[in-house]
Write a structure and sequence with these properties.
By secondary structure, the chain is α/β, with parallel strands linked by helices. The protein has two domains: 4-97, Enolase-like, N-terminal domain (Enolase-like, domain 1), CATH 3.30.390; 111-310, Alpha-Beta Barrel (TIM Barrel). The chain is built from 14 helices and 14 strands. An eight-stranded parallel sheet has the order 5-6-7-8-9-10-11-12. Strands 1-2-3 form a three-stranded antiparallel sheet. A three-stranded antiparallel sheet has the order 4-14-13, with no helix packed on it.
């Protein structure tokens, strides 16, 4: 039977403003795909990202047509991600086998995930960090403005937490060099995409106090040659890779090159996060706190407690049980 495709736009309020070096958001704007064979329905969710010239309208327009043709025709990005994940969910229900079994992965388990400290004044960031100081891993959003002061404020407010520093392409080589000492003095375990993608040649052969992770600089396996000499880790995101199929392939290829892995996400509901749990257990760093930011997550979704992400209820995504 031919597959039918339905697409909708959801605007999900956040529990607090989410600020990074590129701007602030108060809602998660997501596109949801439902793919049906007449008996079973699979679901997927993506986050159109302006950084990659994506909007909800463009993504929804790209998803018009025969879904089986689109799966082969769509380029990596948000639209393909939603469709690819919906297909995996449908396949699990139709075949009566969980996605993690099909891909030879372990069943999702509770996993420590970074809790993001949004960009703010140093005092505001310290207050946010103190509120989640019992979380084992914090991601600290920084910019070119007072990065050392902000980092130290978070480190002092949550002295036991490991820290990921994420300037979202907002630094220059000079700032990166100046931040080496604060990074060394704090419990920083990773620095994520400090320089703009395409302007990161300064990282070639760089010795730094913490490993440097590519985010915007890598989307699919085809980018590995360019980043392998500049970064020690990569951030695998479904929306960049274009779905679970490529994300798993990218993670495996990166491992073969000796790169560390982060399982990352956009700000989205549990429907976008559940597929990432398929490969999160193999990651060195997990940053899947998207649902934590949603004021009201989807029923049956993930739980987030003291920095630990718990998988969604059975049947939520990717297994044969009926969808709640």
């Amino acid at each position: 039977m031919a597959l039918t495709l339905s697409v909708r736009f959801d605007r999900l309020p956040l529990r607090a403003p989410f600020r990074i070096s590129r701007g602030v958001k108060t809602h998660a704007e997501v596109v949801v795909v439902e793919l049906s064979d007449g008996e079973f329905t699979g679901r997927g969710e993506c986050v159109p990202y302006a950084r990659y010239d994506e909007t909800p309208g463009k993504v929804m327009a790209a998803l018009r047509g025969d879904p089986e043709v689109l799966l082969d025709a769509l380029p990596p990005g948000a639209a393909r991600n939603a469709l690819d994940c919906a297909y995996w969910d449908l396949l699990a229900k139709r075949e009566g086998e969980a996605v993690f079994d099909m891909l030879g992965r372990m069943p999702p388990q509770p996993v420590a995930s970074a809790v993001t400290i949004s960009l703010d004044a140093p005092g505001g960031m310290a207050e946010a960090a103190a509120a989640v100081a019992d979380a084992p891993l914090l991601k600290v959003k920084l910019s070119a403005d007072r990065p050392a002061e902000r980092l130290l404020a978070v480190a002092e407010a949550a002295p036991q937490a490991r820290l990921i520093v994420d300037p979202n392409e907002g630094w220059t080589p000079e700032i990166l060099k100046a931040m080496a000492d604060p990074v060394a003095r704090c419990n920083v375990v990773l620095v994520e995409q400090p320089l703009p993608a395409g302007q990161d040649a300064a990282l070639e052969g760089l010795r730094y106090p913490a490993p440097i992770c590519a985010d915007e600089s890598i989307h699919t396996r085809h980018d590995l040659d360019a980043v392998a000499g500049r970064y020690q880790a990569i951030n695998v995101k479904l929306d960049k890779a274009g779905g679970l199929t490529e994300a798993v392939a990218l993670a495996d290829a990166a491992r073969a090159r000796g790169l560390s892995l982060m399982a990352g996400c956009m700000v989205a509901s549990s429907l976008a996060i559940a597929p990432a749990l398929v490969f999160a257990a193999d990651a060195d760093f997990v940053d899947l706190d998207g649902p934590w930011w949603i004021a009201k997550d989807r029923p049956g979704g993930c739980r987030f407690e003291r920095g630990v992400l718990h998988p969604p209820q059975p049947g939520f995504w990717g297994d044969p049980a009926a969808t709640p």
